[in-house]
Amino acid sequence: MTMKIVDIRERTLPIASNIRNSFIDFSKMTLSLVAVITDQERDGRPVVGFGFNSNGRYGQGSLMRERFVPRLMEADPETLHDDSGLIDPHRAWDTMMTNEKPGGHGERSVAVGVLDMALWDLRAKLEERPLFDLLAHRFGSGTPDPRVFVYAAGGYYHPGKGTQGLQDELTSYLDRGYTVVKMKIGGASLAEDLTRIEGALSVLGEGQHLMVDANGRFGAAEALDYLSALQDYDLFWYEEPVDPLDYAGTRAVTGRAGGLPIATGENLFSHWDARNLGLYGGMDPERDYLQFDCALSYGLVEYLRTLEALGELGWSPSRFIPHGGHQMSLNIAAGLGLGGNESYPDLFQPFGGFPDGCVVEDGHITMPELPGIGFEGKSDLAKVCRELLD
Ligand SMILES: O=C([O-])CC(=O)C(=O)O
Ligand SMILES: [Mg+2]
């Protein structure tokens, strides 16, 4: 019997909080949650795939409602299947992108990324296996590594929060098992940021335990002023120093970074942009890190192309540590050998984080064996997902 999608539901939900980075505040931040509902059953219940986007780009319900959902729903169900008779996210991707011109990725890459996440969740649930296991066998080494490095992202600017508040926050991440933490820079003067960084380092101790994130705030000259100061510290990385599409500015920084790793890419949304970063950004595959986030950039179908395009330029998957703190990237990390994943221990809940009972030990988590992406293993998230089905 031909399986088919019977309904796709989406809702915009708030993930607002009273924080800011150097570029935006999160007082009005939203995301799109989507459910792809099929006529298939497992354990007497319909098989449903769920997806959502990560923070930073807002919900994209209108793009989904106007273009991408109708294309999936109007397609002959068989055109979405592979030879196994199950929905193939690659074919669904081609269907969603029908009549979309290349280039200019805007925010459609978010709408497609959300639906792609739900389709991979669905596909792994139909196969009754964890997504990381499916990915390892289909696209990776054949052997997943369920132990994944995670770092704690936070350290935002927050009204009334001084250095003591920052230190308390970062200490609480260490207490929860993280070994590397991230804080924001570029939203204050260089002198103030250096005071914050020194405050952070005083509680983190020796070694590369701190990442700093400028959120693309600087022009090349200011990014270099910061670089000169940051080189005095033993940091894990210096993130998004300049506008993500300013490859010349990125090259100016990477060319002078010496031993300080540079990380960027969370705001590049296609494998073409990623490739251009690799070609023109002066990034060093032995030193630097790439943060493309499938939830914002056309999903895993496109992320596989990104891995391939960067692989041709000498980048190993282990230099990829995605932005976004979602379980989709955790599955990709465990399945395809990425270097780790971001985590927001106190922010953007219930969408971030790990399945219940999954603890961070020595900066790593171990993925449980749950069907699909594993959202059902996180009770607060599962509840929000179920509400979409009511
Ligand atoms: O503050 C943000 O927009 C999120 C971010 O850059 C990150 O997690 O690296
Ligand atoms: Mg960032």
Secondary structure layout plus pairing:
Blueprint: E1 5-14, E2 30-42, E3 45-52, H1 61-74, H2 89-96, H3 108-126, H4 131-139, E4 147-153, H5 163-175, E5 181-184, H6 190-204, E6 210-213, H7 220-230, E7 237-239, H8 247-256, E8 262-264, H9 271-280, E9 289-290, H10 299-311, H11 327-336, E10 341-343, E11 364-366, H12 379-387
Parallel strand pairs: 4-5, 4-10, 5-6, 6-7, 7-8, 8-9
Antiparallel strand pairs: 1-2, 2-3, 4-11
Helix pairs in contact: 1-3, 2-3, 4-11, 5-6, 7-8, 9-10
Residues 213, 215, 239-240, 266, 323 line the site of magnesium ion.
Give a summary of the structure in a few sentences.
This protein has 390 residues and is α/β, with parallel strands linked by helices.
Walk me through what this model shows.
It contains twelve helices and eleven strands. The protein is an alpha/beta fold. The protein folds into two domains: 5-128, Enolase-like, N-terminal domain (Enolase-like, domain 1), CATH 3.30.390.10; 137-389, Alpha-Beta Barrel (TIM Barrel), CATH 3.20.20.120. Strands 4, 5, 6, 7, 8, 9, 10 and 11 form an eight-stranded mixed sheet that branches. Helix 4 runs parallel beside helix 11. It is globular and about 65 Å long. The model has no long low-confidence stretch (mean pLDDT 97). It binds oxaloacetate ion and magnesium ion. Residues 21, 55-56, 153, 213, 215, 266, 323, 342 line the site of oxaloacetate ion (OAA). Magnesium ion binds at residues 213, 215, 239-240, 266, 323. This is Mandelate racemase/muconate lactonizing enzyme family protein.
